Amino acid sequence: MSLLLETIRVVDRAFQNLSYHQQRLERSMKQHFPQVKPILLAQELTIPNSLDNTVYKCRVVYDEKIRVIEFLPYTVRPVQSLALVSIPSDADYSSKWANRSWIEQLKQSTAADDILMVKNNLLTDTSYANIALWDGYEWFTPRLPLLEGTKRAQLLAEGILKTTDIRPYELPDFQCLKLLNAMINFEESPTVSIGNIQ
Hints:
By secondary structure, this protein is of the alpha+beta class. The chain is built from four helices and twelve strands; from the N terminus they run ββααβββαββββαβββ. Strand 5, helix 3 and strand 6 form a beta-alpha-beta unit. It is globular, with a radius of gyration of 17 Å.
């Protein structure tokens, strides 16, 4: 069995959205290790004294138990262009696996900053983020992402996003696309012009 991963934003020496990470961890453990009591992140994680008040990425690698905890400095990666890439209808990333080699291989096939994966003729995710599209009035996110991200879950709960099916040919109905993941606040998320999606 491969290792699973949670990537948690740490800012001002505090974990962000930990309850959403706990929910996803519990879903993953119930699916893959049903005989094991779920890990309690709030009990297992502590902020090292060496961290300052800037943004860090806390990587938690686990299976039946935590295998690795590491804290890494984080800066938002600029993304200005996306390439549409079709993936097989049986491609599955419903759990956040530490091994993402198949996604990285897809990414190497294009000169764009990142890929936007299409499954069953529906938009899903980029290589490392969920997406939200702005139609001039509201933000929409794909109803069936490859991975249900914690930031996406938070924004849905807050009513900032709505879910819908979005097909590649419908992209011109939108003005721009934002990348969403646990490490990026919605306001500072990379924004891609629809014209820069090939």
